[in-house]
Amino acid sequence: HDRRFWFSARQDLERELSFQQGSGLYYHFYKRMLAAPSFEEGFYQLVVDNGTVSGQTINSVERLFLYPELILSFIYRISGGQDYLEPIYFYIGAVLGLQAFYVTALFVCSWMMSGTWLAGMLTVSWYLINRQDVSKVDQAVPLRDNWALPYFSCQVAALTGFLITNISSAAEMFCSLIMSISTFTFLLLWEHAHYVLFVQGLCLLLMDSLDLIPQRKTDHIQRIYLSSLVLVYLFHFQNCSLLGSPLLSLLIGFVLARYFQRRMKMGPFVARLLKLLLHLHLVFTCGITFSYLMKKLLPAAESHFLLKVLEVKFGLKSTSDFVTNFLLCQDGLQTAGQDLFLRLTQTSVLPFYFLVLSICLLSTLQTVYRRLSGQPISSRLRLEDGRIGEQPAVIYHVFHSLVFGFLTLMFDGMKYLWTPYVCMLTAFGVCSSELWMTVFKWLKLKSVHPVVLSLILSTAVPTIICFSLWREFYPRVLSELIDLQEFYEPDLVELINWIRSQAPAAAAFAGSPQLLGTIKLCSGSVVTSLPIFTDVDLLRRTEDTYQVYGMRSAEDVYKRLTAQKTSYVIVEESICNQVWIKNGCRVKDLLDISNRHVIHSKGEMFSLSKHGRFCQEIKMDYSPYTNYFTRVFWNRSYHVYKVNSVLSFQF
């Protein structure tokens, strides 16, 4: 991190500007907590916050999920960190330390499943080599997922240990405790956590329905989900979105379906298969009904809006709505490109992943058939049995990998939940003697003793892989560490310095969400919106601000900005003069479609607006634009206009 941004040689302002994608907004609240006279007073200021979004008093802790900053500022205060470490180093060190915790959890998970530390080392090696696709910490340190995903990794590791068949009661209790703590923390830190746990819950539902996991363990995991949801609901000031979460709907549907269908796992193959289909139908029917009732009873509209976005994403409907199309243009919601799979292939993880997944999946399907036929699962498997698909932990990771892999094909942002476990599952597979024994059992190998050969391959194959990775990628890693890069934006530094020195303390700024996040971090000024793409209200405010790049009249833009109590509006050259993007995601294009200012006919585009593009017309400095706006600052990248409180009509 230091060599990429030349961090230690920079001033405080330039260090803060290295927090990209608007993520510095979260660090601003950490600074506010440290600047407050006491922790209690700082906490109250965030709960009743009228200095962040113009014209609104918001609960920043609930709306922005600021518990990481609250906890870290509290630790920094009581530990006396100010005596030996700068706040920004303490913050970055905590996030990067969590990434080490993330890798450690993957190491432990792979070790538990395979029984050898070599699998853990191979997992870590693949993780580091593919770090571009396993974590966002290289791009933006303070993002919520950089705080939360390490706890999800810990939860998965604890769940893996909990699912192991021959685990002792003490170890099972320890895994249950770790799983409870990590599930609660994961939900507390990230607004999308309940969606991730919903996908995990689907995997466990399928395992339980197919009788691949003891029912008592399923019930225990569901109690952990439910208790964590209730606690997080209270900690987040009765956040209604948690009551309408798909995870809660799934839990309700599962409990009701089990109550109505108590003898599902009995009978011949065809009867059990029909009961399974009926059971899944009951679960989803009850869950969807509960979710529908919650939507009618609760004011939260997040799930309804998310459903609308997904309908447009999958082509079920089309829309001209700016916010919907703007969200679908974000990198995380784009379809995963071929370069992702090319990078994973070049690091050798993807070919071995397909091999391991295919073997485990086929063995799992055999186990499913045996269970539906009424055959019990052996409680104590031997190596020579060659049934890796009968291990509940392996079955879970197969389902986990398949579901998150399918989601990654549709949403590029899901790769951060899939790729780390690709590294872990692949390392486990090539180091597992049970996996090789399963293959030899299918091949009916007799020329060489299969147990001996499987033990040899489980050591030889990962050793060869590790040696080839060391030979090819170790020099690259060293060269990256030696290479001293620089991150510098002189125009942005000039803008921030002007705001700090010339703008009134109570001024409210309007601009793009990422820029406003940076302004909030570096100057503390009030802004009209925030780079939070899960809040529909903030997204609608962003749409109003973005009208400066549309073909709107000066009066119309002025009314929209004054409705948000804007003092200054910032026009960015990079957005106003953005070149053509192939997928049509330019802000100007999205606005023109939403405002119905253009139509497409027979491959031609026609303008229907009688006004020119505001961001270009206002630079001409003529009436009526000068009546409503006064330019007070400009450089190559940014133009700042004061929104006149008293109109002066000049002709």
UniProtKB/TrEMBL annotation:
It is found in: Membrane. One of its GO terms (molecular function) is mannosyltransferase activity. It holds the Pfam family Dpy19. It is a multi-pass membrane protein. Its main location: membrane. Keywords: Glycosyltransferase, Membrane, Transferase, Transmembrane, Transmembrane helix. The chain crosses the membrane at residues 88-113, 147-164, 171-189, 243-261, 273-294, 350-372, 417-439, 451-470. PANTHER family: C-MANNOSYLTRANSFERASE DPY19L4-RELATED, DPY-19-LIKE 1, LIKE (H. SAPIENS). This is Dpy-19-like 4. It comes from Iconisemion striatum. The gene is DPY19L4.
